[in-house]
Amino acid sequence: MARFQVKQYKGHEKGSTGWDSVILKNLSAGGGTFLTYKKDLEIGSLLDLKIDVPGFILIINCVGKVLRIAKPKSTSMFCTAIKFVDIGEQEKEAINTAVEEALEQVNQTSLT
């Protein structure tokens, strides 16, 4: 699970008032994609993010930049792609480890 709020910064004075929950579709140490009902995001917006990584106790706090927004016809949600622009090395390692462990589980399940 992940949460975000629009970051207030110079040139973009309207930040979020609260955190919005999203559904993570894809996650890597460089960024990810998520589904949200929020339709007022703009390409280039900076987002404060809190990401709960499965298997880890820590919550990753980082900043992402919106790269792309798509609206699939089959849903009322928006698919938003971001790249991390402010994330620590420890957080990147935690994401990489979680992704590797998830892939190992998928491989083990598909072999049985």
UniProtKB/TrEMBL annotation:
GO terms for molecular function: cyclic-di-GMP binding. Gene3D superfamilies: predicted glycosyltransferase like domains. Residues 13-99 form the PilZ domain. It comes from marine sediment metagenome. This is PilZ domain-containing protein. Pfam families: PilZ. InterPro entries: PilZ_domain (IPR009875).
